[in-house]
Amino acid sequence: MADLEGTKVAHDYYTDVPFANNKPFYVKGANNLDWGMKKHLSNIFDETSGNTVMFAFDHGYFMGSAAGLERLDLVVPRLLPNIDVLMGTRGAIRSCVPAAGRKGIALRATSGSSMLDEDLSHEVLAVDIEDVIRMNADCMAVQTFIGAEGQLSSLDNLSKAVNLGTRYSIPTMGVVAVGKQMERTDRFFKLATRIVAELGANIIKTYYCENFEEVVSACPVPIVVAGGKKLPEKEALELAYQSISRGARGVDMGRNIFQSENPVEMSAAVRKIVHEGFSGEEAYEFYQDLIHI
Fold it and tell me: Please, is 166 exposed, middle or buried when counting C-beta atoms within 10 Å of its C-beta (0-12, 13-18, 19+)?
């Protein structure tokens, strides 16, 4: 039996203090989700800024050895201090990402396409929910193709992922793909992001466009902006700034980090925009200072 000598006997129930755990949850559209969902979302979005820096390195699932990602085991660990969430496939994460650390995991859950295909819009839900749980993933990333030939099957994949994720309290991130034949207009992105959110996605990954603040306003869950094709560093940082300043809750940079001549410094500059409110110009000056140290 425990020694009770010296144990505090008097009780203080703070009857004059209201219950403390009664604040609304800080992630958009997540206030009515259960505790497990909120916990995963808190691993993705910083509680102070409300934003996230994602690093996408899932390109190999359809491109093979993408330039800059030939050695994931060397690239990823160098970037970890500046990244909040790692977005990759289960094979790449298991084989090349250190298990130590507290980084969020956005697990690529769909596949089936490759660069050899004429139409990349036909994918399947390729990861069992049991494996998502085993990997302790914080969300499942599901590619969606609005307006493409594979729209029905991709939205079916999304719906199945949402159903499974809800059952086990794991969020789903709907990734809005833009094929060669699809328009990159605010009209399209308002339609696509709203459809994906209405089907139950907890996060939307999409592209920046004109009138982006209207896209954000019409979407009931957080939007994370994709970096897209490789841009000059100054342009990529300006893209990040414009996205955050117009309502995005994060950026998911891939090629604009791993194909940069200075990927570590580039990721640090992106972080300054997302979490510290730097402008694109300020972040570029910060980047320049780092590479000239």
Answer: middle
- Is 278 a domain residue? yes
**CB under 8 Å to 73, separation ≥6 — which residues?**
95, 96
Residues near 160 by beta carbon (within 8 Å), at least 6 away in sequence? 125
Q: What per-residue confidence (pLDDT) applies to 65?
A: 78
Q: Has residue 46 been placed in a domain?
A: yes
The β-bridge partners of 56 are 87
CATH number at residue 194: 3.20.20.70
- State which residues form the domain around 198: 35-291
Distances 110 to 74, 95, 123, 279 between C-alpha atoms, Å = 25, 19, 6, 35
Helix (H) or strand (E) holding 272: helix 263-276
Quote the pTM value: 0.92
219-257 pLDDT, tens digit per residue, is: 999 999 999 999 999 999 999 999 999 999 999 999 999
**Residue 200 resides in a domain:** yes
Comparing C-alpha atoms, which of 196, 142, 126, 140 is closest to residue 168?
Answer: 140
Relative orientation angle of helices 233-245 and 263-276, to the nearest 10 degrees: 20
Q: Known catalytic residues?
A: 205
Does residue 177 fall inside a structural domain? Answer: yes
Strand duo 172-176 + 52-56: pairing: unpaired
Overall domain count for the chain:
1
User: Pick the residue with more confidence: 115 or 167?
Assistant: 167
Note the pLDDT tens digit of each residue in 119-162. Answer: 677 889 999 999 999 999 999 999 999 988 889 999 999 999 99
